[in-house]
Amino acid sequence: MDRPRYNTVVRRCALDRDFTLLPHGDKTVVGERGVSLSGGQRARISLARAVYKRADIYLLDDPLSAVDAHVGRHLFESCVVGYLRNTTRVLVTHQLQFLRDVEQIIILKNGAIAAAG
C-alpha cells in the first residue's frame, strides 16, 4: 500500500474523522457482519476507493448526492477539482452548484445529448 497516497485520499475524501470514530479505525469491518455506515460515509468511501486507484480517466456517477452541502463542496473542491486535477474526470450530477467550476457541460435528455458547451 502507498501510505502517503492513502493518507492524502482519506483527507481529501473527508474520512479522517470517520476513521477516528470507528472502533478499529480503517480496519473496522463494515456491512452485514460489521458496523453500519451512513449513506454519506458509504459515498465517501466509494469515492476514496476510486480515487486511490491511479487512472487517467475517472467516471464519477453522482458521488456527492448522499452528502450534505458542506461536505459535498469539500469533496468537489479538494478531491474532484484539486486532487484529480491532472486527469480526465466525467462527473454525472444533478447538483447545479458545481457546474460553474467544470470545463465542459453536457446535458442529456432521453439518453441523447441535448446541449453541450
From TrEMBL:
Record keyword Transferase present: no
Keywords noted in UniProt: ATP-binding, Nucleotide-binding
GO CC terms: membrane
PANTHER family linked: ATP-BINDING CASSETTE SUB-FAMILY C
Domain ABC transporter: 23-64
InterPro entries tied to this protein: ABC_transporter-like_ATP-bd, ABC_transporter_C-like, P-loop_NTPase
Protein known as: Putative multidrug resistance-associated protein lethal(2)03659
Organism: Pararge aegeria (speckled wood butterfly)
Pfam families found in the cross-reference section: ABC_tran
SUPFAM superfamilies documented for this protein: P-loop containing nucleoside triphosphate hydrolases
Keyword Isomerase applies: no
